Amino acid sequence: MPKNPFTQALSKQENQIGLWINLSSNFAAEIAAHAGFDWALIDMEHSPNDYFSVLGQLQVFEGTGTCPIVRVEWNDAVAVKRLLDLGAPGLLFPMIQSVEEAEAAVASTRYPPHGNRGFSGLTRANRFGRIRDYAAKVEDETAVLLQIETRTALARTEEIAAVDGVSGIFFGPGDIAADIGKVGHPTDPKVWDIIRAAAAPLIAKGMPVGTLVNDASFGAELLNDGFTFVACGADTVLLTRATDALLSGVKAELKTP
Fold first, then answer.
1. Which of 21, 128, 170, 235 has the smallest set of CB atoms within 10 Å of its CB?
2. What's the pLDDT tens digit per position in 103-149?
3. Which parts of the chain sit beneath pLDDT 70?
4. Can you tell me the distance from the alpha carbon of 179 to that of 152, in angstroms, rounded to the nearest whole number?
5. What pLDDT does residue 257 have?
6. Residues 6 or more apart from 234 whose CB is under 8 A from it?
7. Do the beta carbons of residue 230 and residue 19 sit within 8 Å?
8. What is the pLDDT of residue 53?
């Protein structure tokens, strides 16, 4: 069973710079895969990805230095089973609200007697039976990340983070903003005051914390302040900004008739 560099880095609290992948395209993912990010998040919650498109993107990232993490659509054991069998090295679970939901998420990544993941001896994850120690070691190498997105979850963050098997806690600024009446404003200072307050005790205890921002300087600031894994941009945002800037630049140089 090969070591998962992302999981190993989290356990050592080594900074991990990430990129969000929304475009659901193998070709677009391949462009990003060679940039040198530590990890990339393949999103199934808010993008048109399906299992085949995720498979293709996992294949693209394999062999690069970038570890692909998949955000599952929901905290659903069947979806988790399929993604793990496809070889996802780690999963991000959205909208975790309680200890019980956290325990269910972890259980879905574990074989019995520690969980409820269904067993198959011939999957892409175990090289179709060629990785002999896969079942014995996969739990130690799979990153299990839980997403905190509401005031309810924020009040229980330390309890959720204490669940055995959790690799890291991810704060979702977009939904936290929505939950406090600031929908569409994930960078509002009040949002980040709340996130930083919830993250501080986790950082003090050595629990890796992460998030998504779309600003290189802010991403670096968070990493410098104790966050461990931060996605500092998204492929869709980068493409949007670049195409808008290109068109604006051309129009600015046009001579008026």
1. 128
2. 999 999 999 999 999 999 999 999 999 999 999 999 999 999 999 99
3. none
4. 9
5. 76
6. 19, 20, 21, 22, 212, 214
7. no
8. 98
In angstroms, rounded to a whole number, what is the distance separating the alpha carbons of residues 22 and 124? 23
H-run or E-run covering 41: strand 39-43
The pLDDT, as a whole number, for residue 156 is: 98
Distance in angstroms (rounded) separating the CA atoms of residues 40 and 70: 8
Distance CA 69, CA 42 (A): 6
The distance of Cα 21 from the centroid of its chain, to the nearest Å, equals 10
The pLDDT value given to residue 226 = 98
What is the Cα–Cα distance from 163 to 76, expressed in whole angstroms? 18
The one-letter amino acid code at 213 reads V
Q: Any residues with CB less than 8 A from the CB of 24 and at least 6 apart, and which?
A: 47, 48, 49, 53
pLDDT of residue 191: 98
In whole angstroms, what is the distance from residue 96 CA to residue 120 CA? Answer: 27
Residues 139, 114: Cα–Cα separation, whole Å: 10
Catalytic amino acids?
46
Q: Is 75 helix (H, G, I), strand (E, B) or coil?
A: coil
ω before 113 within 30° of 0 (cis)? yes
- Residue 214, pLDDT score: 97
Helix spans in 34-169 (H): 51-61, 77-85, 99-108, 134-141, 151-154, 157-161
State which amino acid sits at residue 53: S
